[in-house]
Amino acid sequence: MKKAMYSKGNQKQGLTPITSPWMHQLMEQPQIIQELFKTYGSPLNILHPKSLCLNREKFQDVFKELEVDGQIFYARKANKAKAFVAQALADHIGVDTASTRELSETLTLGASKDQVVLTAAIKTEDQLQIALENEVVVMIDNDDESKLINRLAKEMGVNARVAFRLSGFTFEDEKLYSRFGFDVDSFEDYITQLVGQDKAYTHLQVEGFHFHLDGYSIPQRSDALLQCIKLIRKLKNKGFEFRFIDMGGGILINYLASQSEWKNFDHLLKESLRQETAPVTFNYQGLGYWLEDGQVKGKRATYPYYNQVHGEQFLKEVLSFKTTQGKSLAELLNKEKLQIRIEPGRSLVNQAGITMAKVIHRKQDAKGQWLVGLEMNMSQMMSSSADFMLDPYVMYQNLEEEEAENAAVEVYFTGAYCLERDILLKRKITLPQLPAIGDIVVFVNTAGYMMHFFETEAHLFELAPNLVFTPKSHQISTRDFVKDADI
Ligand SMILES: Cc1ncc(COP(=O)(O)O)c(C=O)c1O
């Protein structure tokens, strides 16, 4: 008997993603999904703002538990959708904006002055003008920015609300390099010499410090926070007032259900690179490893998809760090009357999006490998690391109910760009049956950086539509989806 059914790839030796009930609710409704494809085309990004709410609550619970004044600014660079910004604003949290359009759109969506910060890496005059007109806090990265913001504020007859981005924190006797921000070691001299009445920068109203560390280290974040608190203590004695420290983003998330699967994949990958087993990646791609003199060398260059400590626990550990005097950072922040701010991107849209694409063709290459061509391209689901390592799901229109041993097939999903490397997942995926033309492949948990960050319009392909899913009841219909552009 054949039936419309969905199935996860790699039932054995896979990387099983953590999923949410809403994702299964959709995959259980093939007619509705096919309707959406008919109306909007392929691929489709589905956004679920309610998931942002759930993540937001968990962070706020940590602030409550540690009794700190905490505020969240959703780093919208993780996903371009307006729906998440609207949800963040409705939930009374803020938004971290990194470009003129991110800033102006967030303001248009109704953000108040305390609900936006501007952290753009390149700040243009028109962008700063918008920020100053709307009394948005600007994170200053360098002295040219100080100069420009001060001049604009003077011309506009306002004081610019600013925070200074710091970097170069010393951790375990080594300085943490960053191209961003002022060097923390010389910042005391900088601000005391240049900022304030009768100094070069008279129109900067200093409100806080900001940092965003590369990587995902908890102790590094705790240490940087402590160094900021110490610097603020010194500067308070020199007449500066600080209201907050913003520790940026980089809060790890956990994508995978099983630690043993995660460890096992590493083992399998190395075995396959040594050619001791069949390839587990397309044409033996090493994902950071390579084979040299029969030995696997290098380091896996993927996001750490499995993390025991993640999300709210990650935040709690950063803030619970105890100084040598036995005080926690949470206590020190309170003592100095400082608000702690975070700018989570990926971790706030965890579980909040999926990407679906239609199967267009199936073929076997000269090596006999099955390639399943999808109506999407590599830019529409691209990781900044070596691969997106979550098993996809396939929504079959006609799947044999009885699992037939000989129907199982190993495939790679290929995309529409003219590049040999447009292989949507580098990992080989074992499926219960070869997908048919028109079946749907579902990539889960793609909202954070995967669906939008690298998308391009090469070959004049349209960008993927983004549909916001807000179910009114368990019985869903196509009316539960609206285009993000229409928000
Ligand atoms: C300044 C700043 N804040 C916040 C973020 C968000 O980081 P994440 O998505 O890892 O939480 C970034 C990411 O690059 C950033 O540069």
Automatic annotation (TrEMBL):
Residues 346-446 form the Orn/DAP/Arg decarboxylase 2 C-terminal domain. Residues 57-274 form the Orn/DAP/Arg decarboxylase 2 N-terminal domain. The keyword Acetylation does not apply. Keywords: Pyridoxal phosphate. Its cofactor is pyridoxal 5'-phosphate. PANTHER family: DIAMINOPIMELATE DECARBOXYLASE (PTHR43727), GROUP IV DECARBOXYLASE (PTHR43727:SF2). This is Y4yA family PLP-dependent enzyme. It comes from Mesonia aestuariivivens.
